[in-house]
């Protein structure tokens, strides 16, 4: 019994020593970053992914190769829109995403691209400031009348 207690004591001491020398560093990137968001009912609202992410501070994450998928917030979790960009910043408190580089937006009704963009998840609003190009995937009846 004394041998078991001695081993447990040594194991506890080793664990405490390891914990004292281990620190969590925020300067290292998170590889294959994924951040889901759910509605109060438990349905997916969005999924933010990136090849790499870095926490700038408690509210800001920088993401490389952003792939943001917005869902319909229903049980079937249908994809509504995809947003792609080589670099983006995500504010965690208000779910605002923005980037100075290019953006590509894809959904059933249109495709859009440009640069210097921002996305407000709660308002479901995307703003593109430069080099905007939009392709509509819908029929426009009587547009010139």
What does this structure look like?
It comes from Oleiharenicola lentus. This is LPS export ABC transporter periplasmic protein LptC. Pfam families: LptC. The longest helix has 20 residues, at 2-21. This protein is globular. It is mostly beta strands and 145 residues long. The chain has one helix and seven strands. The chain has a single domain, classed as Lipopolysaccharide (LPS) transport protein A like domain (lipopolysaccharide transport protein A fold, Sandwich). The protein has a seven-stranded antiparallel beta sheet, with no helix packed on it. A hairpin with a 4-residue loop joins strand 2 (44-55) and strand 3 (60-71).
Q: What are the main properties of this structure?
A:
145 residues; mainly beta; lipopolysaccharide transport protein A fold; 7-stranded antiparallel β-sheet; globular; LipoPS_assembly_LptC-rel; signal; LPS export ABC transporter periplasmic protein LptC
Helices, by number, come to 1
Compute the average pLDDT: 84
Task: Please provide the count of β strands.
Answer: 7
Shape type: globular
| Order of neighbouring strands in the sheet with most strands | 1-2-3-4-5-6-7
For the record, the count of structural domains works out to 1
Please summarize the sheet with the most strands: 7 strands, antiparallel
Structural class: mainly beta
Strand content: over 45%
Radius of gyration: 23 Å
N/C terminus separation:
94 Å
Classify the fold: give the CATH topology. Answer: lipopolysaccharide transport protein A fold
Helix content: 10-25%
Reported CATH architecture: Sandwich
Helices and strands, in order, run as HEEEEEEE
- Class in CATH? Mainly Beta
Low-confidence stretches: 1-20
> What is the CATH superfamily?
Lipopolysaccharide (LPS) transport protein A like domain
